[in-house]
Design a protein that fits this description.
The protein folds into 2 domains: about 15-50 and about 55-90; about 95-225, Cupredoxins -  blue copper proteins (Immunoglobulin-like), CATH 2.60.40.420. It has 4 helices and 10 strands, in the order αααββββββββββα. It has helices at about 1-5, 15-45, 60-90, 215-225; strands spanning about 95-100, 105-110, 115-120, 140-145, 150-155, 160-165, 170-175, 180-185, 190-195, 210-215. The strands form 2 sheets. It has a 5-stranded mixed β-sheet, with no helix packed on it. The protein has a 5-stranded mixed β-sheet with strand order 4-10-9-6-7. Belongs to the cytochrome c oxidase subunit 2 family. One of its GO terms (cellular component) is mitochondrial inner membrane. One of its GO terms (molecular function) is oxidoreductase activity.
């Protein structure tokens, strides 16, 4: 069961990731139907003894096996294009944070507030608590309010990085000299884990990302304490 669960997507915590999960299931169903149909036709072709050496063409069947894949591609392409548009859209954010990739850690700035910025390093094994994950937990988590439209600006200071949070359906390249942006909204409280998904050097695998989603009143208290 544990092996099967590792093949699945992470539990969605944003409307966009929910739509991506639905699109994944939709595409896999179409691919399964294609595989079954092609396997059946291949098996019947190999094992039946009905042949006709004088059959030179069959325009009807040729039209069918040309049009059918085209129709299936349309059923995949339309929801895919819709999702691409939604992923690129930034809808009136209530909060903006900036993520800066370094070799090899992340730093964050809360652009809407003064003097709220910090570095986020991976926790060494000697400092891990009993309920924390090795190679995934950090010393300073990103605290963000749930049910709030959030914009994230991503850049880097040295080499290419990539800010990825699978449970939110976000992956943004961090490029030196360029600021990329994306947006998300978290639907429930909890911890979400991500990592740098660009091979950025020797310690590429030691750049985890942790977001703690909290209610707005707790977020305001956290702001006041910083």
């Amino acid at each position: 069961m544990a092996t099967w669960s590792t093949m699945m997507l992470q539990d969605a915590n944003s409307p966009l990731m929910e739509q991506l999960s639905f699109f994944h299931d939709h595409s896999m169903m179409i691919l399964t139907m294609i595989t079954i149909m092609v396997s059946y036709l291949l098996a019947t072709t190999m094992f039946n003894k009905m042949i006709n050496r004088y059959l030179l063409e069959g325009q009807t069947i040729e039209l069918i096996w040309t049009m059918l894949p085209a129709v299936m591609l349309v059923f995949i392409a339309l929801p895919s294009l819709r999702l691409l548009y939604l992923m690129d859209e930034v809808n009136n954010p209530m909060l903006t944070i900036k993520s800066i990739g370094h070799q090899w850690y992340w730093s964050y700035e809360y652009s809407d507030f003064q003097n709220i910025e910090f570095d986020s390093y991976m926790k060494p094994m000697s400092e891990l608590e009993q309920n924390e994950f090795r190679l995934l937990d950090v010393d300073n988590r990103i605290m963000l309010p749930m049910n709030t439209q959030i914009r994230i600006l991503v850049t880097a200071t040295d080499v290419l990085h990539s800010w990825a949070m699978p449970s939110l359906g976000i992956k943004v390249d961090a490029t030196p000299g360029r600021i990329n942006q994306s947006s998300f909204m978290m639907m429930r409280p909890g911890l979400m884990y991500g990592q740098c998904s660009e091979i950025c050097g020797a310690n590429h695998s030691f750049m985890p990302i942790v977001i703690e989603s909290i209610p707005m009143e707790f977020f305001i208290k956290w702001l006041n304490s910083n």
